[in-house]
Amino acid sequence: MQKTLTRFLLLTLVLSLGFGQLLRFEYLGLPLYLHDCLVALILLLNFPALARPVRTLASSLSLFLLGLAIGWLVALVLFPLSSLLIPSLYTLRLIAYLMLYFLCKSSSFLIPHYYFLLSGITCLTIGLSQYFLLPDMRIFQYLGWDDHLFRLTLPHFDPTFTGVMLVLAILSSNSLYSTNIFRLTSVVYIIGILLTYSRSVWLSLALTAAAFIRNKKILLVSGILLLSSIFLLPKKFGEGTNLLRIYSLTSRWQTDLAYAQKAGWTLLLGQGLNTLTPITSPSSYPLHPSGPNNSYLYLLLTTGILGLLGWGKFMFSLYRTSSLKPMWLFFFVASLFNNVMFYPFALLWVLLVSATAPSEA
């Protein structure tokens, strides 16, 4: 009964990721997500069996956990205790994701690959529906989301993160790579990814393809088709569809540089996850993220050198033993441009895929 219920919750968890931010709700002023509630239920249901996953977590991520702990000690010095309550919840969520990964790995829970495919199709369907039926997303700015126009934005209310999730969905099942179903769905996925107008996602996907497509002719043809498709994209009103826009590039670089300069000595030790204060003037919109765009810089600022090295070692171990190396490489490259590595949906996705997919080890 316990295993049956756990399997049902895991399948529901994977499918829920396809709805993105649409399953977000608030309780007592705190933002909650259905997938986080499902993670908590799974861990509670398997509480007696968590001893082994906890030991594995402690041994596999000992260096990261040490950096995380030091960063929080620094945070206790820098900030009043009352301001650290919300950031601490984000830290607990990260640890819960990692515990779920080790639980699935140790218990041999299997999630058929088509559930990830179905979740990705759900994301794609919502995104395409929004693009054609509600292209002007500026009406949601008062809720805290950015004012995107004529871009595929839903279900994550952000073209870049929606694009990231679509790519992860494509690369999450190598058993489909050589099938006609994969080729057909990939074409539709690529259309959706192109309509996000997210150049960082395009570049990350192109670099991943260049690293894994061995046939030079196929790589050349794929590159030509991609570039042709990009130039054929509709150019509509607004900076979002302007492929030559440089403001977003320069502003990201300046923001990340400002965070590094502001950190000072805490760059070595970190100052606790989710404790970074905005570099620019605070926004009146609560959903605007505060922190660098680069995931590795974010990790360094919050957990210090030890945290960065420990997390990097853990991530590389997952990549090295994975049968889905293209997915992982895309995840790593995309994290250079946006904080993809700690975007809850993306991190939980790759951990669940890795925990239930066949290993090369």
UniProtKB/TrEMBL annotation:
**Entry's transmembrane regions:** 30-49, 61-79, 85-103, 115-134, 154-177, 189-212, 218-237, 296-316, 328-352
- Keyword match NADP: no
Annotated keywords: Membrane, Transmembrane, Transmembrane helix
The name under which this protein is listed is O-antigen polymerase
